[in-house]
Amino acid sequence: MKRSVIKGTGRFIPSRCVTNDDLSKMMDTNDEWIQQRTGIKTRYWIPEGEIVGSSDLALEASKIALDNAGWQPEDIDLIIFATLSPDIFFPGSGCLLQTKLGLSDTPALDIRQQCTGFIYAMSTADAYIRSGMYNRILVVGAEVHSTGLDKTTAGRDVAVLFGDGAAAACVEAVETDANIGVLGSVLKADGKFAEKLMLELPGSKYPERINAEMLASGGQFPSMDGTRIFKLALRKLPEVTLEVLEQAGMSLDDIDMIIPHQANLRINEAYQKTLKIPEEKIFNNIQKYGNTTAATIPLALDETIEQGLVDPKKSTVLFVALGAGLTWAAMIHRFGE
Ligand code: UT7
User: Fold this and answer.
1) Predicted model pTM
2) Containing domain of residue 278, as a range?
3) pLDDT band for position 48 (50/70/90)?
């Protein structure tokens, strides 16, 4: 039976560290508010004034992941690129990454699932692998948020949350009877909450996708009903965790590490409390990176491996996320050979 196993991961964080104090020079905010409400101390943004897209960050992360997996770019059968901040409106960043990897006919697709992007992308990779269509899939989550935030006081509720970054995972088909690889996957969406977290402009539904009058409305910046999303997360993250455990016939005791999306440390602490998860079984790094959306989970996975908290030969990890769409999702993955 073909199983989808992560064989290597990699991450790339741009060099410009932005502290909460740095933000307080741009807008009416302060370190105390940001840390208390979100847990964030720093985030990293691409260098000011430079042209750096999500595919550029993804390239660096992918090179490390390929190296760790022992793959050459030519080994990749498919690229799945999860992002809400593609380099340009179209074509997708997957195609841009493909050529930067020196490839010329490898298929590439983008996944537009925001905070759950990595889990949706992994689930798509798993389906391709199980079907026998592809054997080696590069799954990437990458975001450049910093060029699209309203860095004035009007945008402070969103601008302080987001960081730039990328991380990648090499997912390989392993023919085995062992219970390894993707063991469970639950994907959910409810479009009636779409307007609670969105980036409206440019919008192809409008006679003009964007014009000066529309720009004055601020619709080119992300907007969020933070309280509503927060409450939805408190309920749905534990629910979807229990559902994926049930699907896999497992309990929390079978999981070595939970890697939740990094949107707000308070959300993850409440989630941990609800499910009575011991401190050593859940990983957070939002303090350093802020919310890097589709990159948060692979970024955290890569760090847990580096820190020896996850064994890339045998650990069982659970990913869980909720965000724009509304989408929410969970996945269980067991490393193995
Ligand atoms: O990854 C995608 C999924 N996203 C999420 O899961 C995010 C979910 N939501 C949240 O994380 C939280 O709702 C936020 C961190 C966004 C906001 O925290 P909150 O505790 O819900 O604060 P709030 O929006 O209720 O705002 C409280 C106060 C307001 O002032 P008043 O009306 O009480 O006077 C805001 O204007 O805090 C003010 N405020 C700020 N003050 C300083 C909002 N943003 C800031 C800021 N600095 N950056």
Assistant:
1) 0.97
2) 1-337
3) very high
